[in-house]
Amino acid sequence: MKYSETMERMRAANHVTPLVDSIPQLIQAASSTKGPTEGGRAIFLDRDGVINALRPGYVTGWNAFQFLPGALAAIRQLSLLNWPIIVATNQSPVGRGLLSADGLAEIHRRMVARVERAGGRIDLIVHCPHMPEDACICRKPEPGLFQDAAERLNLTLADSYLIGDSPGDLGAARQLGMTFVLVRTGFGAMSLIRQPDLARQADGLADSIGDASQWILEREGAVVGAPQERKAA
Questions:
Q1: Would residue 46 show up in a list of annotated catalytic residues for this protein?
Q2: Considering the domain 3-219, what is its CATH architecture?
Q3: Considering only CA atoms, which of 200, 230, 228, 203 is closest in space to residue 77?
Q4: Which residues pair with 179 in a beta bridge?
Q5: N or C: which end of the chain has fewer CB atoms below 10 A?
């Protein structure tokens, strides 16, 4: 079922739907018909535990946001592919009343600005503001965030990548046929201990977003630096 059809069905049932951050350059990118925001393939990134460090509780302000080592360089490297780079993130603090939508947008505005200063880019951010009990269509592992981005940017999800650190990320990738790289940062290492089968289910394993970006670049023939871990065939 197409995302638009799913949305209509869920709206009719009074279910909630995903949101795009109200950051002007991202809105402009989402509506663009030129450049890296158009085309069939994309790189999707989870946020917490992949781009920034996990912390006790939630990231409810920029002072609590800390880029993981190598994350900025990794996003810069991924920009070499000239595909859309999209952050897809569950952000239940909004639904819990711990963070306003404007507050989340400000965190993301600062994140995007820092990425751009480091020579990278983020073309779109889609987030789920809901709690697990809200029964939405966008909280990962539900596919709504990715389907939303795909319709906005005319993407083929089965030809796209997702870098994530959790079973929820893997579940979304598997539903949509995306190539999934599991990182050991964030929830990744603990998830592998609790569910060892995740190593088999993921298409690639990496210690960090830096290693994951190298894995993707190498796979796509755009090698930068030394080869990183690959799954055995």
A1: yes
A2: 3-Layer(aba) Sandwich (3.40)
A3: 228
A4: 161
A5: C
Catalytic one among 48, 148, 165, 203?
A: 48
- Determine the Cα–Cα distance for residues 23 and 147; give it in Å rounded to an integer: 20
Q: How many CA atoms lie within 13 A of 217 on its CB side?
A: 22
Has 102 been annotated as catalytic? Answer: no
Task: Using the Cα atoms of residue 97, residue 21, residue 41 and residue 84 in order, give the sign of their dihedral.
Answer: negative
Residue 5 has pLDDT above 70, yes or no: no
Q: Give the three-state DSSP class for 49.
A: coil
Omega before 141 cis (within 30°)?
yes
Phi then psi dihedrals of residue 90, to 5 deg: -80, 130
How does pLDDT run across 136-161, given as a tens digit for each residue? Answer: 999 999 999 999 999 999 999 999 99
Distance, in Å, from the CA atom of 85 to the CA atom of 44, rounded to the nearest integer, reads: 6
Residue 24 half-sphere exposure, CB side, CA atoms within 13 Å? Answer: 0
Cβ proximity of 216 and 160 under 8 Å: no
| Distance, CA of 146 to CA of 10 (rounded, Å) | 16
Chain centroid, CA 223 distance in Å: 22
Tell me how far the alpha carbon of residue 115 is from its chain's centroid: 15
Query: Taking the complete model, does pTM exceed 0.85, yes or no?
Result: no
Any idea what the Cα angle at residue 23 is, between residues 21 and 26, rounded to 5°?
85
Note whether 47 and 187 are within 8 A (CB).
no
User: Which residue in the list 46, 148, 169, 211 is annotated as catalytic?
Assistant: 46
CB 225 within 8 A of CB 211: no
Cα Rg, the chain, nearest whole Å: 16
